[in-house]
Amino acid sequence: MTPTIATPTIVTPMAAAAAIETVIEIRNAEKTFTMHLQGGVQLPVVHGVSFEVRAGECVVLSGPSGAGKSSILKMIFGNYRCDGGIIAVRHEGAMLDIATAEPRRILDVRRSTIGYVSQFLRAVPRVPTIDVVAEPLLATGTARAVAHARAASLLRRLNIPERLWALPPSTFSGGEQQRVNIARGFISDLPILLLDEPSASLDAANREVVVDLIDEKKRAGVAMVAIVHDDDIRRRIADRVVDVTSFAVAA
Amino acid sequence: MSDARAAGRDQPLLVADGLAKAYGRLTACQDISFALYPGEVLAIVGESGSGKSTLLQLLSTQLAPSAGRVSYRMRDGVLRDLNSLGEAERRFLFRTDWGFVHQDPAQGLRMAVSAGANVGERLMAVGWTHYGRIRQSATSWLERVEIDVGRIDDAPRTYSGGMRQRLQIARNLVTEPRLVFMDEPTGGLDVSVQARLLDLVRGLVSELGLAVIVVTHDLAVARLLSHRIMVMKAGRVIETGLTDQVLDDPHQPYTQLLVSSILPA
Fold first, then answer.
1. pTM here?
2. What residues does each domain of chain A span?
3. ipTM, two decimals
4. By the CB < 8 Å criterion, does B249 face chain A?
5. CATH fold label, A4-113+190-247
6. What residues of chain B lie within 8 A of the CB of A79, using their CB?
7. What is the longest distance spanned by two Cα atoms in chain B?
8. Partner B contacted by A37 (CB < 8 A)
9. How far is CA A67 from CA A46, A195, A250, in A?
10. Domains located in chain B, CATH noted
């Protein structure tokens, strides 16, 4: 395996200029769940979460299961509400605090700034795979033919046989669904990508494809935050590792 | 989407301000304020008796509020207090700019006249006179809602529940409304029929850039259709936010109870 540092990358002047830009800046973010159905018990998840991510960089969150890695990704995406602190992301040229943004601004951010590759595909029934993958591009106004061509090329790279493209992914195997999910997540040109276990349940060949896709995104100046359990993959994609246990709330 | 529609996206389409409705000493709705933007789908969820259906009637001027007001941005771009509209203007809204999808299609359709006439009637109400063109538009809408065009001359009373509901949707959308109210649109349907209808509605809403206010007690419907959610209990809005935020990270005890009550599929 090749360590990240030794990987030769061709840096275009534009990517180099973008590389200094901070795209995500998190300061003292915190999250506690209050379980009202369990007598109002407080479940602290994380506090004092502070790190930043620059364009073209992949930051991997590490820590044992339950440490709050997924919660942090969900807070950046605006899926979990943030109880304190700031989660600033660069959106249309200015920093926007996700922790306090209005719902419709967060929807804007999801359309044009942040993509999220979750562990599981949440597919709408009846929609063909090719459309599921092309949808993020169509939503931002890309022509159908162009969107379909890009979807097809990603599905091909991720080894989804062409005969399946017209079928809804709900009948696919877990691994196939995950690859459809990855194709959907990587298709658009959003400046920020959040990856929750993108390589889980994939075979070696498909894991290689995911590593390549991440490398391509880096070269395009995309900022990524990832959760990866596979040590080999982590070494190859991480520019920096942020240890989430340092944000644990002392019991 | 036309440029005019795109330009208006940053201005609210409908604004509720301090809305309340009381029946004697019984309060059905209280202190409800929100803004709905073009293209936004808002779900109002809560159990029966929470006031969600009353709220939908207040918003669509079918009930007069005891307090507060509803304003709507007319096609000329001016935000108007709906209470101040004349009868003719209100009728115009209902005929063209708004749609209303009832839980029971029999309430929104004329059951004894043909499907084609059900769709064509809305067009005639806005001044269409050319029979051929009305027929053509009705045909194309039946296709869009996946109704066999061979059934265009049949009355909806000969249709299945799912077909009736799809016909009601076609009838509502044919005049290209900007806002559609939906009251439990999948309420009386089998689960498999529900999925197909939701999928269809979801596609049409995003394609046409419609604003929708959908009342439902079914959180799965809210998740699939809506961008934002308002949770109602005892006539008040107790929690509001992005749909996935409210459903994945509910804060209020009642919302947590609703979310935890969903039976796993």
1. 0.89
2. 4-113+190-247, 119-184
3. 0.86
4. yes
5. Rossmann fold (3.40.50)
6. 242, 244-245, 248-249
7. 57
8. yes
9. 8, 17, 12
10. 3-109+178-260 (3.40.50.300)
